[in-house]
Amino acid sequence: MSMFRPKKMELSGFVNTLALRDYCKRKAFEKHEPERQALRYAIRNTALPQRVRAQAQLQLSQMHCYTRPTQIKNRCVAGGKARSVIRAFRLGRFQFRMQALAGELPGVKKASW
Amino acid sequence: MRNLAFSALNKSNQATVPRRGISSTESESKKDTISPPDTSSATEWSERLDSLSSRARLPRSVQAVYLRPLRRSSEYGLPSCDLQLRSYSVRNVEFFADFAIRAAYYLRLPVSGPVPLPRIVERWTFPRSNFVHKKSQENFERITLRRLIQIKDGNPEVVQTWLAFLRKHAFYGVGMKANVWEHETLDIGRNLDESTSDVEKSLEHHLSQFGRRKDGEALGSLSNVLDAGRLAHNQAPLANIRRH
Fold first, then answer.
1. What is the CATH number of the domain that holds B154?
2. Superfamily in which the A74-113 domain is placed by CATH
3. B141-199 residue pLDDT tens
4. What are the sequence ranges of the domains in chain A?
5. Angle of helix A17-44 relative to helix A50-62, nearest 10 degrees?
6. ipTM score of complex
7. In chain B, what residues touch A52 (CB-CB under 8 Å)?
8. Can the keyword Protein biosynthesis be found in this entry's annotation (chain A) (predicted)?
9. Are B139 and A108 within 8 A, CB to CB?
10. Do A80 and A70 touch, CB atoms closer than 8 A?
11. Nearest CB to A93 within list B122, B126, B173
């Protein structure tokens, strides 16, 4: 969504359309998080009138999907893969294997026990 | 190498000037004349070094490097700092733990440790190929080694100096984490009361920044804020087509 695309982007690692989209989603979520949390609070607060809570519910459901945290997906920094990405290294499994065998990941060795 | 070269020279001399009877003696004499300076210089050096080590000694601080690190004994045993060192290699973490203990000794800090804490083993298993072939997999592991060094009865300032020194001479591949405790007198309540005026003065600038925004006051309560939003003109929910 172009409206969520910042003018200036601090990108690093593997960049393609999907990586760009994920970056925009992260930015959008960061920007709208207080608003989302305020609405979530209003929905769950039983002290508020029912009408207000219903309105808050509607507003939250009408917010753009880019502002949702569930839209964010971790991607491989080296290859851009979205599946089987190791959180500790931010690498896909094959990239991790290649880099580990090349000795580029400190402390990672082939294990046998 | 040098001796070899000389012997080769002697041999060539023998070959070119074949003088029986004298040649052997001459070559021997030549050997005597040429080789002695080398051996004598070597013996001289070793002798000189031996005499030096017998007569003089290394400075105590340098001698101490070859021995186990010295320690101060603590009087009360109150812990004031827990330093945890982490690394993936035994050599680095052992070396730096030793260094930290020596540094603590020279700063007159009683120290206990290094305590070897349990290793952290992380293991991963992945298929060898980049696509399918799940039957052939590979294991990887990363073992983090930890050492705990505890400072006891340390003056907070000296402990900070020690930590700063370790940070300055941080060793490659060794991470550090410190928990620092400070001890107060029993009059802590009175001390806090006395210091409140200073704290308030220092916070005055920041506290004056607090308050409600002027443009936010127009909307008033939360229900007003929600009414003023885009839902205000919607009579019934889901009556209109969603815009996004």
1. 3.30.70.600
2. Ribosomal Protein S14/S29 (4.10.830.10)
3. 999 999 999 999 888 999 999 999 999 999 999 999 999 998 888 888 888 888 888 89
4. 16-73, 74-113
5. 180
6. 0.81
7. 222-223, 226
8. no
9. no
10. no
11. B126
